Amino acid sequence: MFILLGLAYFPLRVGFRFDPQPCELLSTAKYLLLSFTNYGHIARFALFFAMSLAQMHKGLRPTTAGFVFAGIAGLTMGVLVELAEGVTGRGNCRLRDLIPDSVGMLLGALGVTLWHRTRQAGPWPGTADLAE
User: Fold this and answer.
1) Are 108 and 50 in contact (CB under 8 A)?
2) Which residue from 94, 82, 99 is spatially nearest to 35, judged by alpha carbons?
3) Which of 3, 42, 58, 65 lies 20 to 30 angstroms, CA to CA, from 76?
4) Parent domain of 99
5) CB within 8 Å of 25: residues ≥ 6 apart
6) What is the DSSP string of 44-74?
7) pLDDT digits (tens, 9 = 90+) for 28-63
8) Residue 11 located in a structural domain
9) What pLDDT does 52 receive?
10) How does pLDDT run across 82-112, given as a tens digit for each residue?
11) Is 97 a member of any domain?
């Protein structure tokens, strides 16, 4: 439902008046590097990765199947967002926008893994005295 509502945002934003634009498939090295500064995409896709992983299992347990599912879901969502921007003419349909999406998913995977490991490991070394 979250995905459907997220994608419905694009046609709603333009009042269902579509203005299809071509998607930019090629880019220069300058713009590829610039895409790493798209912090909004990075943050949203890190969260999307964690949410997708949570749908696979009860809780955020890092498993290979969960990571594959969340990665495929994230890439699919990224492609659908770019296509929605191209079809509505609002925003820019760029293949290079999948770079910050992927970086966000990698950070989401790292965050989930670190969160899971710290919860399993117990207290940090040297902090057991603080709990008393």
Assistant:
1) yes
2) 99
3) 58
4) 39-120
5) 95
6) HHHHHHHHHHHHHSSS----HHHHHHHHHHH
7) 888 888 889 989 889 999 999 998 888 876 666 677
8) no
9) 87
10) 888 888 877 788 889 899 999 999 999 999 9
11) yes
